[in-house]
Write a structure and sequence with these properties.
It is a single chain. By secondary structure, this protein is of the alpha+beta class. Helices cover about 25% and strands about 45% of the residues. The protein has 2 helices and 10 strands. Helix 1 runs antiparallel to helix 2. The mean pLDDT is about 85.
């Protein structure tokens, strides 16, 4: 699971840099079937653009008003190696080997550093583990 996600993210990150340049990110979300990038264009700081990575290509960005003024995360601050480690660690941290990936979200924390949230599905509920930019556990929310 972690290796496939790491490879998919590395391809999406490289492609995002080629496609959009050095943008600042509100959120990068990996679902089992897609990757979504929410970013702010420096020319339009009050607009958040969303693009999806499908079939090795990004969709045309769709803009909407940016909710809030939280810090942004430079695209190149997302570390594919840390992502691989946190996805591998999540089942151990959540104390379950019988789960499937719900999603992985990467966004800036309050200080503008990368924060990785891994959600694992256990039947009909989700357990969540949040990690800091170095891959250290920050918070655990077991499935209910």
């Amino acid at each position: 699971m972690a290796l496939a996600l790491s490879e998919r993210l590395a391809a999406a990150l490289a492609s995002a840099t080629d496609e959009f340049g050095d943008v600042e990110v509100d959120l990068l979300q990996l679902d089992p079937d897609s990757t979504s990038l929410y970013f702010v264009d420096p020319a339009e700081p009050d607009t958040r653009n969303r693009s999806e990575y499908l079939d090795a290509a990004w969709s045309s960005p769709v803009g909407a008003p940016r909710p809030g003024t939280q810090p942004l995360l430079p695209l190149d601050a997302i570390d594919p190696e840390v992502l691989r480690r946190v996805v591998e660690a999540a089942p151990v941290v959540l104390e379950s080997g019988l789960s499937r990936l719900g999603h992985v979200s990467i966004s800036p924390d309050e200080s503008g550093q990368a924060e990785y949230l891994v959600a694992l599905a256990f039947g009909t509920s989700l357990g969540r583990a949040t990690f800091d930019a170095a891959g250290e556990v920050r918070e655990v929310e077991p499935a209910s």
